């Protein structure tokens, strides 16, 4: 495998994933970089109620278009006081198309108004799916990170719910954390690390020595 396509156009995810996959022995590329034009159908791909189902659908779609082995992820935040919501609907939580991060954070803080710190427990969850071909069986890797929802945003780093997510591992919000600190313990970092370890074990990637 000379190239690995990662099926995302999110600038925030691209920054994180490029670093997370920095050590793999193949070229990591993204749709815009190899000339895959955006199509409105992409908004309809993630139509299941599971992270794995959404990630698999996305990976197979882009593998079919590109002809490349493809990796995709789906992630979300699960808040116990909201019965696990918004979960797989985290990106579309506030039902807006512009300034989604701010709108989602604002809606969550409004829904949790009056809930004490002890009741604001939450976790980020990420599921990564790799498909060598569109018809091939998907390989699934999962990571989680526990914490709680803060009373107000803190920090300007990261994206999504990072400014209001307090990480128990870091003793700070994800919005305050450096990229390196976040990658070491984040849901996405843990899921991608499992994928990398699997690649190394199975000999996937690395040109002729690790052809898949």
What is the gist of this entry?
The protein is α/β, with parallel strands linked by helices and 212 residues long. It has 5 helices and 7 strands; from the N terminus they run βαβαβαββββαα.
Count of distinct structural domains: 1
Order of helices and strands: EHEHEHEEEEHH
Give the % helix.
25-40%
CATH topology: Maf protein
Ends: how far apart?
A: 6 Å
Strand content: 15-25%
Indicate the mean pLDDT. 92
Work out the number of β strands.
Answer: 7
Number of helices: 5
Largest sheet: 7 strands, mixed
What is the alpha-carbon Rg in Å?
17 Å
State the CATH architecture.
Alpha-Beta Complex
Low-confidence region ranges:
207-212
- Class by SSE composition: alpha/beta
Please list the strands of the largest sheet in the order they lie side by side.
Answer: 2-1-3-4-5-6-7
Overall 3D shape = globular
Report what the structure shows:
This protein is globular. It is of the alpha/beta class and 212 residues long. It has one domain: Alpha-Beta Complex (Maf protein). The C terminus is likely disordered. The chain has a seven-stranded mixed sheet with strand order 2-1-3-4-5-6-7. 29% of the residues lie in helices and 21% in strands.
């Amino acid at each position: 495998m000379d190239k690995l396509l990662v099926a995302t156009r999110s600038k925030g995810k691209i920054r994180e994933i490029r670093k997370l996959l920095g050590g793999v022995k193949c070229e990591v590329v993204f749709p815009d970089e190899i000339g895959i034009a955006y199509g409105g159908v992409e908004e309809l791909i993630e139509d299941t109620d599971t992270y794995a189902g959404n990630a698999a659908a996305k990976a197979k779609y882009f593998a079919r278009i590109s002809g490349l082995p493809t990796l995709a992820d789906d992630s979300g935040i699960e808040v116990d006081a909201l019965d696990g919501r918004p979960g797989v609907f985290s990106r579309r939580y506030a039902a807006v198309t512009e300034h989604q991060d701010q709108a989602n954070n604002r809606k969550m803080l409004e829904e949790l108004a009056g809930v004490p710190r002890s009741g604001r427990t939450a976790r980020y969850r990420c599921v990564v799916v790799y498909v060598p071909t569109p018809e091939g069986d998907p390989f699934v890797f999962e990571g989680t990170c526990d914490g709680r929802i803060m009373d107000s945003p803190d920090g300007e780093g990261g994206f999504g719910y990072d400014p209001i997510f307090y990480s128990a591992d870091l003793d700070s919000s994800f919005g305050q954390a450096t990229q390196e600190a976040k990658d070491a313990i984040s849901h996405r970092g843990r899921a991608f690390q499992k994928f990398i370890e699997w690649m190394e074990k199975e000999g996937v990637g690395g040109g002729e020595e690790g052809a898949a």
